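Batch job 17 of 40 flagged for manual review because the log was empty.
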Amino acid sequence: MAKSRLLALPLIALLLYLSYLAAGIGIADLYAYSPRQQVEHWQQSNTAPQSEAITTALNSIDQAIDWAPDNGEYRDLKGILLYYRALELTAAGDQRNFTELTSASLASYRIASQLRPRWPYSWANIALMKAALNQFDEEFAQAVDKATRFGPWENAVNISITEAGFVGWHQLSETTRQQVLENTLRGLKRNNNQIKQRLKALNKLTLACIHIPSGPAREILCGY
């Protein structure tokens, strides 16, 4: 009987530990629920969030990360929220903190990519943040490669890589340019309007039309 009790002790300890982990995950997801819903709403409605909403969402996602530091989704959400903050301050005329906040966003996406190395959205957002910081280096090329390899037909990947790629076009290697072009051609089959809007907003539509090969995709995007 005593031996059975001794054998049961490690099992009880394990069950208690697993219960603690499950409770922590549940609490983390409660904190992450509102930021997740808000980001989805802002993206789908294409609206700029208010400053107070960004602050509240950042506080909540930080709490979620405290409870579940190895959750890649939460790191992605924090990256998005930090970039929203950077854009919000820039739109208000305060550009002093843009680089710092965008770098913090990039750092969060880096952690997310380590936690979920085959998740294409993290890699696409790394490329986007690098473009915003004018950093077209080996890390940028790697992000383009992994985003297009792991999510070749994902809408958000197609749009983000097109935007980041043409922003830094003249600083890219031939290999990375080809990956950007192939990504854009795939995106045009499903997201012509969004890609065209983004390229126009960035004043990169003419550049894209010069390099996209003649055919139906260029006719749709460029009109010739």
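Reviewer: the log was empty due to a logging misconfiguration, but the result itself is present. The mean pLDDT is 91. Unflagging and moving on to job 18.
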